[in-house]
Amino acid sequence: MKPFALNETHTSVSESAFLAITILSEIAKWDDRRVSYSGLWEALHGEPPKQGNYWMKVLSPKLSDLSQWCLEHNLPLIGALIVRKGDRLQNEASVKNLYDFAQSAGVKTGRDPVAFVNQHAAMAQMLDISFVAEIDQA
């Protein structure tokens, strides 16, 4: 993955770490400590997503890479923090994808996909942004 510049100090991290940091930064703005897909898009691109679902086709593979990155770094699945804008609930397909991905990677998931994803969301909400940046550079 290509590195992204984080700030004027020229600290850089991988694309997945940058996405994780963006998600963690965005959840701080909401009482439920979650970020919507469109809110994430806007944080990454500086403008709301266009009509249609093209933007989700761009975002989805990056979220898949993020899940892999999280497991490689022994982190909770940070993508569990992303919700639909309207009802602020997790997308059922996303819950299934995170659960199936974790199972295929050998993670102990339990029998309830929603409980598994909610557990990862709760753990991800406690992550410190500087820790995420540090482990990416280790």
Automatic annotation (TrEMBL):
Q: What is this protein called?
A: Uncharacterized protein
Q: To which species is this protein native?
A: Novosphingobium clariflavum
Q: What is the lineage of its organism?
A: Bacteria, Pseudomonadati, Pseudomonadota, Alphaproteobacteria, Sphingomonadales
